[in-house]
Amino acid sequence: MSSIDHAARLLALDTPTLSDALDALALSGAVFGIRALTVKTRIAGRARTVSLGAPKQHASKVHLGTGAIMAAEAGDIIVVDHRGRLDVSGWGGLLSRGAIARGVAGVIVDGAVRDVDEAAELGLPVYARSGVPITARGRVAELSFEQPISFAGVAVAPGDWVLADASGVVFLPSGRIDEILALAERIFAREQLMARDIEAGKPITTVMGTDYEDMLSKVTS
Predict the structure, then answer these.
(1) How many Cβ atoms sit within 10 Å of the Cβ of residue 96?
(2) What angle do CA 154, 155, 160 make, to 5 degrees?
């Protein structure tokens, strides 16, 4: 199955449904506290990873994020591990322009970003913990790109899948994407039937009885 097909299937779901599927499979991957700061739209794609940290003596002067941008293909998502830092930016306006030029679908940062208005005007979805005006220059260095990272405690490898929406962010290991998607689609279909029952007038106590609490075990059996 192509990357376009996987992305389309992810975009037809949401992060709560995928989180439920991960729970049922005893996998971690859901992250909270990351929100859309620019374009409020759901994004899905393969992760291009970046790890940021404190500057080191004699470290490379390559600007953070540029390697991942150049490695990205259309539809990819830049995922930046900035360890939750809110006092300095881990992404900025020129990077947003570079990402758009490569066809990047969005950017997700575990930390703060700047030039939020600029990214919004450009139409680039940027998810992060907050905005901040303070530059990374002299304060932050890129430790690696296209290497495995830990994003808010979740292991993310280059090429893993990610979905972000208003509820949060979910990372999905590439080696199990088909299994996760199939289960999430079964969960989604079951919840859609329950939603229709509620809209048809069935009491919510009936619809969300013991059957709802046991739903994950039933869809995996």
Answers:
(1) 27
(2) 110
Lowest mean pLDDT among 38-42, 185-189, 195-199, 203-207: 203-207
Q: What pLDDT shows up at residue 4?
A: 72
Which residue in 97, 73, 80, 98 sits closest to 136, CA to CA?
80
Domain spanning 3-12+26-174: CATH 3.30.110.40: no
Q: What is d(CA 103, CA 196) in angstroms, rounded to the nearest whole number?
A: 38
74-89 in b/e burial notation, b at 16+ Cβ within 10 A?
ebbbbbbbbebbeebb
pTM: 0.91
186-198 pLDDT, tens per residue? Answer: 999 999 988 898 9
Q: Are 150 and 81 in contact (CB under 8 A)?
A: yes
Strands (E), the chain: 30-31, 35-36, 43-53, 77-89, 106-113, 126-128, 130-131, 141-145, 149-151, 154-156, 161-165, 168-172
Distance CA 180, CA 172 (A): 8
Cα separation, 174 vs 64, in Å, equals: 25
